[in-house]
Amino acid sequence: MISKRRSKIQGWGVFATRPIPKNKRIVDYAGEKIPTRESLKREARYLKTGRIWCFKLNSRAVRDASVGGNIARFINHSCAPNCYTHIVRDTIWIRAARNIRRGEELTYDYATDGESGIRCRCRPGCKTRL
Ligand SMILES: C[S@@+](CC[C@H](N)C(=O)[O-])C[C@H]1O[C@@H](n2cnc3c(N)ncnc32)[C@H](O)[C@@H]1O
Ligand SMILES: [Zn+2]
Fold this sequence. Notes:
Layout lengths: L1 E5 L5 E5 L8 E4 L3 E4 H12 L6 E3 L4 E4 L11 E2 L5 E6 L2 E6 L10 E2 L22
Bound molecules: S-adenosylmethionine (SAM) and zinc ion.
């Protein structure tokens, strides 16, 4: 249903290899489950490389896709995404926000606070910081 390829947004991205219907659970964001305190330390380290791998599960825990992650860790952010995330207990589902055509790059809103300072490249002129 999906494959990893070079992206026009940044680096690697994930693309639909067949049409995906709205609301379909596409893939789960895998990664080591760690406490928030540990994730703050790791994120500071990752930011030096310019890439974020940690996804907040709840106020206490985070999934770090750089340890035990799967293809979902290559899904880029967009301010006009075609996917959304749906957390069910410890599982972070990436789901289709609308019908997605074959060949489209999958994106979701990272919902970050801009602290990384990374400029969003989802479209020319986007002013968001990830
Ligand atoms: C989970 S990785 C996504 C895969 C990444 N493209 C790669 O090649 O490893 C997250 C990182 O990708 C980059 N990224 C994702 N979406 C982006 C966007 N809309 N604009 C700029 N960089 C983006 C940032 O460096 C971000 O920290
Ligand atoms: Zn953007």
